[in-house]
Design goal:
Oligomer: single chain
Strand order of the largest sheet: 6-5-9-8-7
Structural class: alpha+beta
Helix content: 40-55%
Radius of gyration: 63 Å
Shape: rod-shaped
Strand content: 15-25%
Number of helices: 15
Number of strands: 16
Largest sheet: 5 strands, antiparallel
């Protein structure tokens, strides 16, 4: 608890410091007073002892004794004149250093329990004791032994008690003061710590309450400013990050960022779809964590050259253009990965192919009738044949080829308008039962001429079969479907034109028992100029635009058309049109 609390740390530090200082000061003062009192007492006693020794040596013995008694009474001391042989016993009880001093005539003065010349004495009182050599004619004739109780000991005890009491009181007062100071210092620091922890967790709303103008207060102001700036910068970064993420996510092109080992660090949804599909084909696992082999090879090339690479990849039948550039560290020299943009140009390539095929098909379709018209026209100009019937036959051929070219041009114009959304339709409520029966009657003669059975089947329903649309265009749809059915159904075959209502959808089916369409050709029957058997279709007068026009007209009526076919057994076209609301 103490290790993690700054208040307790400051408090204990201040208390410890003040306690140590007060204790050292008390001990120092105690030693100072002790030395002063005892030294003064010792100096005064030494002066009196020297005076006593001079009296003993210089005055008669009776006078000297009287003076000694007066002096001893005045100093409250015990004065004894020790003569040999008693002095030898006293000298024997002193230390060797003190004995050496006595032999040289020096005075020995000590504080403590004094040696006594009387073995029977039991005096153990703390006192000053002095051995003063009496020198007569250059020789020691005796010792003056003075014992004075230490009168300053009581005063020193009181001084010591007062010092320690003062130290204790100072420690108590310092404890309270230290707690207040440490508390006042730690509160803003603790508050700053809490604000910093909230900032670490992403919450920049906390603020430090600044109440002082000192360093701690300025630190609080700085922390508040830092929190505000950080919050502002992080908000800006978040907005930029969200904007960049939105841009990358909304891109139709794939964006990938990878490190030096080929591990993907960033990828938008289109890029992840491309990578998962390719990884599933390569390793059987739809992972988007690692670059596929082709992209990793591109990365190695970019890392080797340090230049932007543009290449084409063929993934799962899709053509992708890869633009890959190196990514550098902040120093601008060290590579840290690559960034790549994957653009799917499959549709563009298909459009280019369709454009080339369209030009080739139009040229091919126009070349044959133009060549025939040119040949027969030149024959007529050269007055080929004198028979009027022969000339009329040539003229009829030229007219048929002209009609064929006109139909081709009209179909192209209609298809262009339909695909551009500029085709004008006259919407009205159409009775589909009446329309289907009229179309059936129109092809009755054709069916009789080609020896093909034509059946019109309309499922009875009390609800009206009404569609909102252009009757002429819908008639064109079913006319094209029936015309295709008659062209591809041999003699003795059967064609069915059926209509039935299914919930809110009207279903019209054109089914034949003709040649059928191979499965590989079914996805392309709606393409312009697409013909399953180009040689046979041309001989039957088809241009390859009828189904494309039919498909676009149905889509403009918010409907759908589905084809189902089996080679050798026939083809079925189902047209689904929404029922008009009552």
């Amino acid at each position: 608890m103490i290790r993690n609390n700054i208040t307790w740390k400051l408090w204990l530090t201040i208390i410890g410091l003040i306690t140590v200082v007060l204790l050292l000061l008390s001990i120092f003062l105690e030693q100072l007073f002790d030395s002063y009192f005892y030294q003064a007492e010792q100096d005064r006693l030494l002066t009196r002892t020297n005076h006593m020794a001079e009296v003993i040596v210089n005055y008669p013995q009776d006078v000297a004794l009287v003076v000694l008694q007066e002096l001893a009474l005045e100093e409250n001391a015990s004065v004894t004149l020790v003569q040999p042989p008693q002095s030898e016993y006293v000298i024997a009880n002193v230390s060797s250093e003190q004995l050496e001093e006595l032999r040289t005539g020096k005075t020995v003065i000590e504080r403590g329990y004094s040696p006594t010349w009387d073995p029977k004495s039991s005096q153990k009182e703390l006192s000053f004791w002095v051995l003063q050599p009496l020198i007569t004619h250059g020789e020691i004739s005796g010792l003056l032994y003075v014992i004075q109780p230490v009168e300053a000991s009581t005063a020193m005890e009181k001084v010591q008690d007062l010092l320690f009491f003062s130290a204790g009181l100072g420690i108590v007062l310092a404890t309270g003061l230290a707690f207040v100071v440490s508390r006042n210092l730690s509160i803003p620091i603790v508050q700053m710590n809490k604000v910093a922890e909230r900032m670490m967790q992403g919450d920049f709303s906390g603020k430090v309450q600044v109440v002082t103008g000192d360093e701690v207060g300025r630190l609080g102001v700085t922390l508040n400013t830092l929190a505000y700036k950080l919050e502002e910068n992080i908000d800006d970064l978040e907005r930029e990050k969200e904007q960049l993420a939105s841009i990358i996510t909304s891109m139709t092109d794939g964006v990938i960022s990878a490190d030096l080992n080929g591990a993907i660090t960033l990828a938008n949804p289109p890029a992840r779809r491309f990578i998962r599909a390719q990884q599933l084909a390569e390793i059987g696992n739809p992972s988007d964590k690692q670059l596929p082999r082709d992209l990793f090879a591109c990365e190695q090339q970019v890392m080797h050259t340090g230049q932007t690479l543009v290449d084409e990849l063929n993934w799962q039948g899709r053509v992708l253009v890869v633009t890959m550039a190196p990514l550098y560290e902040k120093d601008g020299d060290s590579l840290r990965g690559v960034v790549a943009v994957l653009r799917d140009i499959t549709d563009e390539r298909m459009l280019d192919k369709m454009r080339r095929d369209f030009i080739a098909n139009v040229s091919h379709e126009l070349r044959t009738p133009l060549a025939m018209m040119q040949g027969y026209s030149e024959a007529l100009l050269d007055e080929f044949g004198d028979d009027p019937e022969q000339r009329e036959e040539l003229t009829n051929i030229i007219l048929d080829e002209t009609h064929r070219m006109r139909r081709l041009v009209n179909d192209l114009l209609d298809l262009a308008q339909l695909e551009a959304g500029q085709f004008q339709m006259h919407e009205e409520q159409i009775d589909m039962e009446h329309l289907i029966r009229r179309i059936g009657r129109k092809f009755t003669t054709v069916a009789h001429e080609r020896n093909v059975a034509l059946q019109v089947e309309i499922t009875p329903d009390e609800r009206p079969a009404t569609v909102l649309g252009d009757s002429d265009r819908l008639e064109q749809v079913f006319t094209n479907l029936l015309d295709n059915a008659f062209r591809h159904t041999p003699q003795g075959g059967r064609i069915t034109l059926a209509m039935a209502r299914e919930d809110m959808v009207l279903r019209v089916c054109v089914k034949d028992t003709g040649e059928g369409i191979p499965p590989d050709d079914l996805p392309h029957v709606w393409d312009r100029f697409y013909k399953v058997d180009k040689a046979r279709t041309r001989s039957k007068g088809g241009t390859g635009l009828g189904l494309a026009i039919t498909y676009n007209i149905v889509k403009n009526h918010h409907g759908d058309i589905v084809v189902d076919s089996e080679v050798g057994r026939g083809t079925s076209f189902d047209v689904l049109l929404p029922i008009a609301p009552a």
